[in-house]
Structure formats: C-alpha cells, structure tokens
C-alpha cells in the first residue's frame, strides 16, 4: 500500500474510532451479538403473546424461535424466546417486557446450564436405493421413523439445536419434501452440568 495512504488511514478519525470499537467489543462480552434464550413466565390469558410479540416488533427485534405452553403452575404459561442481541440490548428488552402486566418472571438462560430440546419432523422422498441409507442415518441420530409410504419417509428428531441442524444438513442430499420445527424449549439444570460441554460431546459422537 502507498506510504501516504497508509499514513492517512492511520490518522483518519473514522479508522481510529472503528479500532476503538473493535477493542471495546473484544474486551467487553456485553457488546458481542449472539442468540439469547429467554424463559418467560406469564399469565395464561388471551392477548399476552400478542403484546410480547408487538413489543419486540416495535424495538426491531427479530424472534428466531418461540415456544409457549402450560407451566407447572395452573394458569401460568412458560414462553421460551430465542432472539439475537448483545447482553446490553437484551437486558433492555427484558426491562421492557416486565412492563407488560401479565409477565411475571423472565430469566436469560443463555449462559446458564440448561436442558434444551427441539422437535423436527422431516418428510423425505425415498426410493428402494436411498431408503436403507436414510434409515441408517436416522438410527445414528436416534431419530424415529414415524411414517413410511411408497415414495416417502417421515422422521421425528428430538434433541438440542445442534443435533437438529446436523441431521437437517445431512438429509439435504436427499429431497426434503416437507419440514416443520418447534421452537426451542429449555429448563435450567439443577445439577449445574456444563451444557456446552455436553453439546460438544454429543456432536462429536454423531460425527463418529
């Protein structure tokens, strides 16, 4: 690069500011954008989910995954949200969600050991030649064959996000006719076992 241009870039205020920002991001994990998992307890009443989704939409927050169902308490629903953001921005979103009168409790379980599960149903086009290979792959991933037709096969896959993504990618070599996924659900581990460690061990097992 031309020496004069190098000097200009070095002294350019915008370049200096960008370097400062990069340094701050490296030093402060709160500035790093990643997927956050929120576990929300709310009164099971009509319109609660609409109000939550509306608040997130107004803040320009993209919901990557959402699952809702009854909790262990009568009349209380548990909502699991997965959304991207920095720790700082997600903290602000949590403060806003608490302003919704029906919201009772919110936990950001992103960095907490949790049991996490998703469900995926895959309908795959099969033939006499491909069916054995698909069933063999399903067996490796402990997926269930829940329907078999003359030209298709439907699999049920239950596991963490990593397992679901891996088997979906492996099945791309065949023709996927239909696919549906639930949102992620999670519960904190009382055992405090490191979930990330278990996930890595699981993925290594599948790879073998």
Automatic annotation (TrEMBL):
Q: Which UniProt keywords apply?
A: Amino-acid biosynthesis, Branched-chain amino acid biosynthesis, Chloroplast, Plastid
Gene3D superfamilies on file? 3.30.70.260, ACT-like. Chain A, domain 2
The pathway to which it is assigned is: Amino-acid biosynthesis; L-valine biosynthesis; L-valine from pyruvate: step 1/4; Amino-acid biosynthesis; L-isoleucine biosynthesis; L-isoleucine from 2-oxobutanoate: step 1/4
Q: Name one Pfam family in it.
A: ACT_AHAS_ss
Single GO MF descriptor: acetolactate synthase activity
One Gene Ontology BP term is: L-valine biosynthetic process
In terms of InterPro entries, this protein maps to:
Acetalactate_synth_ssu (IPR004789), Acetolactate_synth/TF_NikR_C (IPR027271), Acetolactate_synth_ssu_C (IPR019455), ACT-like_dom_sf (IPR045865), ACT_dom (IPR002912), AHAS_ACT (IPR039557), AHAS_small-like_ACT (IPR054480)
Where the record annotates domain ACT, the positions are: 37-111
Any one GO CC term of the record: cytosol
Task: Tell me which NCBIfam families the record gives.
Answer: acolac_sm (TIGR00119), PRK11895.1 (NF008864)
The record's comment on protein family reads:
Belongs to the acetolactate synthase small subunit family.
The protein in question is named: Acetolactate synthase small subunit
What's the source species for this entry? Vaucheria litorea (Yellow-green alga)
Q: Please spell out the taxonomic lineage of the organism that makes this protein.
A: Eukaryota, Sar, Stramenopiles, Ochrophyta, PX clade
């Amino acid at each position: 690069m031309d020496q004069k241009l190098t000097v200009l870039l070095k002294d350019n205020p915008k370049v200096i500011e960008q370097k400062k920002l990069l340094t701050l991001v490296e030093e402060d994990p709160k500035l790093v954008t990643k997927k956050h998992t929120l576990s929300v307890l709310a009164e099971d009443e009509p319109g609660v989910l609409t109000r939550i989704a509306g608040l997130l939409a107004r803040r320009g927050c993209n919901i990557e995954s959402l699952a809702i169902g009854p909790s262990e308490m009568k009349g209380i629903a548990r909502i699991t949200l997965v959304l991207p953001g920095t720790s700082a921005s997600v903290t602000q979103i949590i403060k806003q969600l608490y302003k919704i009168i029906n919201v009772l409790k919110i936990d950001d379980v992103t960095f907490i050991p949790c049991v996490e599960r998703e469900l995926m149903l895959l309908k795959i086009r099969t033939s006499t030649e491909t069916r054995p290979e698909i069933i063999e792959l399903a067996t490796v991933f402990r997926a269930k064959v829940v329907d078999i037709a003359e030209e298709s096969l439907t699999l049920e896959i239950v596991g963490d996000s990593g397992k679901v993504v891996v088997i979906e990618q492996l099945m791309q070599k065949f023709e996927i006719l239909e696919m549906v996924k639930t949102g992620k659900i999670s519960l904190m581990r009382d055992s405090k076992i490191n979930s990330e460690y278990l996930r890595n061990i699981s993925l290594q097992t599948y790879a073998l």
